[in-house]
Amino acid sequence: MGHVVVLATGGTIASIPREHGDYVASLGGTELVSRAGEVGTVRAETLFVKGSYAFTLDDLYKIAQAVGQYLHDPDTDGIVITQGTDTLEETSFYLALVLERRKPVILTGAQLPASDPHSDGPRNLAQAITVARDPEAASWGPVVVFNGEIHAARDVRKVDTAALDAFKSPGWGPVGLVDRGHVIKVRTVRARRVLPATVPRPVGLVRLAVGMTGDDILQAAGAAAGVVLEAFGRGNGHPSVAEAVRQLVEAGVPVVVTSRCVQGFVAPIYGDGGGRDLERAGAWFAGDLAGEKARLLLGLLLAHGIRGEEAQAWLAEWAMP
Fold this sequence. Notes:
Layout (H helix, E strand, L loop, with lengths): L2 E6 L6 E3 L5 E3 L3 H7 L6 E5 L10 H15 L4 E7 L5 H11 L6 E4 L12 H12 L10 E4 L2 E4 L4 E2 L8 E2 L7 E4 L2 E4 L17 E5 L6 H8 L4 E6 L7 H12 L4 E5 L15 H6 L3 E2 L5 H13 L4 H12 L2
Parallel strand pairs: 1-4, 1-5, 5-6, 6-7, 13-14, 14-15, 15-16
Antiparallel strand pairs: 2-3, 7-8, 8-11, 9-10, 11-12
């Protein structure tokens, strides 16, 4: 039997109070593993120590590079990444976009800091290591293990700011559970193509709200290489938004439509500013993919020079569960 590698990056799971009572990520991988109890042979490495709200796109690439190194190590059974929960769903999806499914890749964290006597961090980490030791877990691709549930990177979202049961997969549910040291598989995750790891191009993410017009979209787009709209409902916007989309697309800036809703698919159905008009203006629709995840996918496609119909095909592949 080989070992599990734990790659630590900071987050609440590694946070303790500092001056003025501020909680700051401080603990490295070795300290986290020591708090997780009897978890077998584990190799700990600290990539960096900070809150995930401070992550950059470069950091996602660095994590992928580190994971990729161990995916080809014959002595490594699986890899666990510990990080802050604020952007955990984005890191997991980025890894799903760029990593082959060679070995289990697990992400976890905590809602309560390391200094809290009731912190959920040690339990989450122990369960993540359990899943990482199961070779069949590789078939899911990168997953989030949290509070006894296992969630696919494409589907998972943080749904609560503070509750221990913070991560869910709206509309789909977990792919598995961890119970008394056993991994229970609930559903499969279909295989998809992946892209070579690189730093995504900057893509704007604009959430529509009542009163926002096309001018707001153009202003928010700025110099971004692409734009993702979190539109109303099924993928609708103020009638002037379609004209803004047309201008962006004609300028070579792709526009992807997602929904403000946490569940359900976008589709070009309505006119008078609705999704049909956005589609006619050149926007692409991203199924039930969350806006922040569509942003990462579009950024990666642009970084690789993938545009037009080829980019649409990639989006369609990841837009469905």
